[in-house]
Amino acid sequence: MKLENVDGFTFNFIDAVNAFVFDEKDKSKATFHGQPMKAVDILVELADAYLFIEIKNFEDAQAYDERKFSDDDDSKKKHDNFKWLKNYLKYKYRDSYLFRHAEEMVDKPIHYICLLNFDNALNSIMEKKLKQELPIGKASRRWRRELVASCQVVNLEKWNRNFPKWPVLYIAGGAV
Amino acid sequence: MLEKIKFEKFTAFEKMEVEFSPGINIFVGENGTGKTHILKAAYAACDIAKSKGGFAEKINNVFYPSGKQIGRLVKRSSVSSNGSLEIIRKLDHGKKIALRLSLSNHTTKPEKAKISGSPKAWTESSMEAAYIPVKDMMANAPGFRSLYKEREIHFEEIYVDILDKAFLPALKGPTDGQRKKLLELLQNAMDGKVVIKKEEFFLRNKQGELEFTLLAEGLRKLGLLWVLIQNGTLLKGSALFWDEPETNLNPKLMKAIVSILLELQHIGVQIFLSTHDYVILKEFDLQMQADDRIFFHSLFRNEESGEIEKATTSNYLDISPNAIDDTFGSFVDREIERSMGRLGK
User: Fold this and answer.
1) Residue B316 distance to chain A (closest CA, Å)
2) How far apart are CA B278 and CA B329, in angstroms?
3) Under an 8 A CB cutoff, do B344 and A162 touch?
4) Spans of chain B, pLDDT less than 50
5) CB proximity under 8 Å: B 214-253 to A
């Protein structure tokens, strides 16, 4: 199942039952989102799981690296940028989950994959924070089910290496 | 300024040529890809002006092959073979001179090795250099230098060289602005300054004087850098070689170290580092400005031939292969495998 030019990326989910742009803005489409809620970019239904996919391709990836700063103001800015991105990714997932809950479409484990153009180390830092804050698994003893089964933050190279059945191609210039 | 180094059948290298940045050169690569060998060979060439025996002897003392048989530095082969090492240097007025060492695996003594190029011109215009080895020597300074001179002890010469340089007295006259700034940066990072008393180093601050044996090893390295800047070893036109600066250093101190190295580069010190550390690599990436001249040299083994090759780039993201980021990458792979099983495969 192919999705063309989503923020400059072309996806092909070979084994998917369904795959569509989740934040669809075209009213004529059956998958029109239309609610004042945040929404991940892509939703994929597999035989026994769902994938929520969010893409962020930054021109200036360094603006999110809080370890670099020239002075205190810059440090705060970078820290704020990183925090902003983490929250952005977190609330996108949660709102999307709520939407799917209302659709009664949360019947399979959900894996959240963020495709970011950071290096592996910076992606790992983001992933750790997200896992804590989403949070993944049955985080509370009171929970009967999990909100999200797993969370991965990967770059394009890592995506294609780990998910050969879902090849992704980046078309330069198409990014946000 | 060192411009280029060429190896042929020397130590780990079958054939290797590296062009240096006049600013900062960072060598990355897995263990056994020859990072330290490049640093040592280039350092030996800088330091011959000060050593009596010439390039071959300096190389032999710096590498310390078994039994000090210099021929053992030729790359191992089942047949007799010849190896060579050549370094090209650009003098202040732009003239380029070379220094070349050729030897066979049967060469036993340094004086039998052949030196060619312009050894005379090379030694006449000396180049100050300091090599900071992985192991700290500052705390073991008392007596070590005299022991090294009097006895045959199994230490590469870099260990005694660095102490000799650390014990040089301070430069005469007032400290110029740039050096003052560097010294202050270091003083802030290590919270004090270094004093030497009877071959013993102390860190002096408000609390008093703390001998280096009681000081964290990472701080001793900062202390060493402070001394080398304060006594004028690291001035314009000199070279600093630092093997794995990250060893024993808290990653938080790396920010200060990298800003000091960038500053040293600005005053005209040519810098050579080897590293396995993500933090140091990333710090350079993050702190570097457009006018900084940084080369990342990635050393790796060609999977087919098994020989060591290198790829050089001035862009952090283009370092390839990047053994350090690959390590994080392997965590990513394992994490996905663990939490998503066979999905997508």
Assistant:
1) 10
2) 12
3) yes
4) none
5) none
